Amino acid sequence: DFLFFWGGVFLITTTLVALFKKENELTPTKEETKGITDTYRLLFSIIKMPAVLTFCLLILTGKVGFSAADAVTGLKLVEEGVPKEHLALLAVPMVPLQIILPLIISKYTAGPQPLNTFYKAMPFRLLLGLEFCFLVWWTPKVRHEGGFPVYYYAVVLLSYALHQITLYSMYVAIMAFNAKVSDPLIGGTYMTLLNTVSNLGGNWPSTVALWLVDPLTVKECVGAQEQTCGTTVAAEV
Q: Short name of one Pfam family for this protein (predicted)?
């Protein structure tokens, strides 16, 4: 029902925009690109620049340190018995924070060195990864028959809030830097390239972390002598 409702809202609003929004008559400006071939040729020339290559290497590997904590923590909490609907409810108080944070952080990324905010937020985000590990370890110890105490959810909420601060500090800083270094004449193409690499730098470490969870998890078989549970098949047996 939720997806159906918002799908309907999306269709209605975009249809209204298509019907009633009129473009202003503007004098065509000089453009660097004319078609798909020119665009990709331009992207290739941009990415060959030494500074762009170095920056791409930075943003492709900069999120490896906290990818596992970001991708696996919520799943492990559910595995330890935290109801999924409770974790979903904890996302509601995060919405105002997610709206306010970019407004606050943008004041610090508007200067000549927006990546300073990225660098300063990184160690705190790495430390929060250790705190998430502690949270997963602590979860089964506070669980009781009725579920989890209120103070447990308060700790989870605070942890998520601190994580959002570091996450948005890095995200807004990268966006500000991409906007600053992009050539205005081809700003859209330039920024799209850098933002795509930035998104890829956040996605591939999470995918690898999720893939490695099972083989790196130590398991013991209770009541089955000389039986290992290292693989999914062995665990089912």
A: Acatn
Residue 96 resides in a domain: yes
Q: Indicate if the pLDDT at residue 32 is higher than 60.
A: no
116 in a structural domain: yes
Total domain count, the chain: 1
Question: Can you say whether the dihedral through the CA atoms of 51, 52, 58, 61 is positive or negative?
Answer: negative
Q: Is 147 helix (H, G, I), strand (E, B) or coil?
A: strand
Contact 201, 63 (CB under 8 A): yes
Angle, nearest 10°, between helix axes 50-61 and 36-47? 80
SS3 84: helix
Instruction: Tell me the one-letter amino acid at 34.
Output: K
> Does residue 137 form part of some domain?
yes
Question: Phi, psi (5° rounding) for residue 82?
Answer: -70, 125
Express each pLDDT in 11-31 by its tens digit: 999 999 999 988 777 665 555
- State the virtual CA torsion across 73, 76, 78, 79 in degrees, nearest 10: 180
